[in-house]
């Protein structure tokens, strides 16, 4: 039963082959048995899950239907969940029980999804390896000595290991797409403003966006349908109608114009990944797509711009964790300054402290123009490159990451080496565009992802291309040995 996708689960539940309660029990037992190897969960919510599963079974018995009604999922541990620990992977929030549900959590619960637990993540979503979590590193089910990617590494490892069919995640600079690539999943970062950020603990507010991680594009469509939509509680949420994503999956790719940026195939890209990306292009050409070389000339400036803007916003967002209102408080503070200093010094891990310092520096008087303002100007150039490219093509295709998943600990002493791995994903966040990563093959037994980018609000186009690709390839069906 654990091999079923969301789409198959919906059919099985509708046909009364099994109940949501039975399925939930099977998956909870599987998590108890296998997750000690992976560390993909921070909290399990067995009681809530069983209660939600029973309620979903009653709703179905009363004639209700819906693709998510009775479907087991998990939430990245930065989505606030009423009365349940919401840690953001940090000691700072280890004792924090959210007083309300995030909009995404509330919407999915209303659709009948069953929450199995809260997944592990890099501390405050800062990282690409899921090694900065206060709760320990997550392992990649494809090779337990390698990282699963980050920051949504817990959601990715759990879904890849078939502990559950799908999970929520967030992407500030690649944290849905990069772990999807590292664990052979399909992950979608929606257009900025498509999914509500209300109750999603902020890292960098102008870049953060929630989205689905699943095994197939078909399942991403189902989960995104439950997450997307206007939310008056989030001032950056956009009031655009949500299309029927599942209905968009079956469009023909005849004449689809695919742009492949020449800058993507530079020296930094593993040549074996480049070959797999070219193979995926050939596959899409067979389905009728037309390929064209394009250029994104400002791409080289994206990493430095991102690593000014994201820490700057983080330094401001994380100022609320002061030991006074909620979260960790140091023992026996001497005075107020000591309370602030020690609560923050003891509550935040080294990567979070590094980013707060970099961000505060970039925003300080005298440096603001040189760093923050400059980075914002680069951000506009990156966006303009995409706007020009989308005048010529319908989607942009390339690698999701320059290398496959690295070994645990391999980049711990050199944070910049990890930042450089974000080169293909961060531009979509800077521009606010939707992006998807899907399985495209293997290098040394480790999965490789191909990334698709589309114009604003064209999530349906991304899901359509990915679904057609998945009907004609079987990379996404491969299962890691031992799971
Ligand atoms: N790796 C990037 C960072 O560390 C992106 C993380 C994310 O998308 N949350 O900032």
TrEMBL record:
It comes from the Bacteria. Keywords: ATP-binding, Ligase, Nucleotide-binding, Protein biosynthesis, Transferase. One of its GO terms (cellular component) is glutamyl-tRNA(Gln) amidotransferase complex. One of its GO terms (biological process) is translation. The keyword Transferase applies. InterPro entries: Amidase, Amidase_CS, Amidase_dom, AS_sf, GatA. Allows the formation of correctly charged Gln-tRNA(Gln) through the transamidation of misacylated Glu-tRNA(Gln) in organisms which lack glutaminyl-tRNA synthetase. The reaction takes place in the presence of glutamine and ATP through an activated gamma-phospho-Glu-tRNA(Gln). Belongs to the amidase family. GatA subfamily. PANTHER family: GLUTAMYL-TRNA(GLN) AMIDOTRANSFERASE SUBUNIT A, TRANSAMIDASE. This is Glutamyl-tRNA(Gln) amidotransferase subunit A.
């Amino acid at each position: 039963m654990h091999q079923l996708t969301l789409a198959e689960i919906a059919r099985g539940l509708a046909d009364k082959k099994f109940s949501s309660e039975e399925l939930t029990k099977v998956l909870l037992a599987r998590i108890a048995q296998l997750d000690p190897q992976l560390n993909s969960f921070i909290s399990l919510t067995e009681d809530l899950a069983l209660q939600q599963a029973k309620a979903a079974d009653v709703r179905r018995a009363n004639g209700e239907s819906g693709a998510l009604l009775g479907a087991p999922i998990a939430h990245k541990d930065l989505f606030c969940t009423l009365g349940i620990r919401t840690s953001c992977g940090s000691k700072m929030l280890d004792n924090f029980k959210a007083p309300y549900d995030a909009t995404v959590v509330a919407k999915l619960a209303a659709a009948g999804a069953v929450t199995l637990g809260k997944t592990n993540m890099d501390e405050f979503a800062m990282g690409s390896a899921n090694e900065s979590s206060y709760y320990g590193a997550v392992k990649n089910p494809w090779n337990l000595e390698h990282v699963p990617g980050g920051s949504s590494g817990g959601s990715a490892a759990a879904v890849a290991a078939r502990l559950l069919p799908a999970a929520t995640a967030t992407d500030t600079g690649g944290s849905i797409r990069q772990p999807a690539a590292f664990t052979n999943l399909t992950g979608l970062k929606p257009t900025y403003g498509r999914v509500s950020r209300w109750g999603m603990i902020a890292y960098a507010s102008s870049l953060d966006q929630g989205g689905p991680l699943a095994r197939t594009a078909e399942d991403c469509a189902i989960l995104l349908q439950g997450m997307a939509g206007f939310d008056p509680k989030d001032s950056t949420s956009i009031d655009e109608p949500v299309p029927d994503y599942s209905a968009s999956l079956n469009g023909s790719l005849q004449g689809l114009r695919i742009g492949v940026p020449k800058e993507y195939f530079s020296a930094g890209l593993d040549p074996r990944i480049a070959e797999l990306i070219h193979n995926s292009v050939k596959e899409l050409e067979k389905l009728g797509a037309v390929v064209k070389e394009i250029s994104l000339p400002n791409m080289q400036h994206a990493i430095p711009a991102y690593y000014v803007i994201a820490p700057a916003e983080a330094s401001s967002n994380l100022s609320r964790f002061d030991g006074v209102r909620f979260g960790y408080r140091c023992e026996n503070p001497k005075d107020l300054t000591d309370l602030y200093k020690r609560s923050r010094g003891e509550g935040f891990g080294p990567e979070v402290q590094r980013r707060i310092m970099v961000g505060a520096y970039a925003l300080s008087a005298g440096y603001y123009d040189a760093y923050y303002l400059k980075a914002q100007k680069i951000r506009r150039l990156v966006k303009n490159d995409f706007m020009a490219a989308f005048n010529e093509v319908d989607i942009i295709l390339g690698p999701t990451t320059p290398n496959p998943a690295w070994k645990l600990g391999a980049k711990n002493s050199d944070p910049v080496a990890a930042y450089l791995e974000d080169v293909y994903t961060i531009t979509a966040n800077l521009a606010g565009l939707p992006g998807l990563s899907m399985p495209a093959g293997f290098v040394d037994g480790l999965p490789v992802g191909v990334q698709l980018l589309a114009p604003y609000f064209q999530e349906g186009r991304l899901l359509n291309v990915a679904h057609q690709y998945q009907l004609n390839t079987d990379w996404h069906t491969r299962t890691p040995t031992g799971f």
